[in-house]
Predict the structure.
Amino acid sequence: MSKKFSLLILLVYSVLATGMTLHISMWSMNKSSIKIAGTSSLHDWEMKVERVQSVQQIEINANELIIHSVELKIPVKSITSDNSMMDSKTFDALKGKQFPFVKFIATQSKLALEKGVFNGKIMGVLEIAGKTRQVEVPISGVMKSNNILELKGDYRIDMIQYGVEPPTAMFGTIKTGKDVLVSYSFELTTSL
């Protein structure tokens, strides 16, 4: 028996003996919704994200969803509201010329999967206006089928931690709060 064949048999036996199922798939964003809500001294406000770029590597087995990697990029220009002045102030506050993207890069996270439902936290690095921080983003979701995942969550961000000064208007008489709530929902698909 050749050495290569012996090594192959040993590898197959090892995988079978440990009960491992290795099936890491590339997932892409089919649908996305991201809303950013905040407060001001005048009234609450909301913005939405028009475009998201993202690629995920996810492994699914009988009782676990393993997120191997996520790369998510949001063009700062795509964060909009119904008010062009607010859009301009947001772009400036996020230093959009110098840092045109808000980025989230996830590290490996494991989520318990029971009857197609999962929830937990994704660990990763969030970059806003050129500053990065380690974060834990809450997530919940459901497997709609073998190749469709729906997920959602809410994450509160203190913008001052990223060096972003809350925008003001009307010569400083209208001030926004330092915290924003990001609410997201995504539908991911894979070709298996």
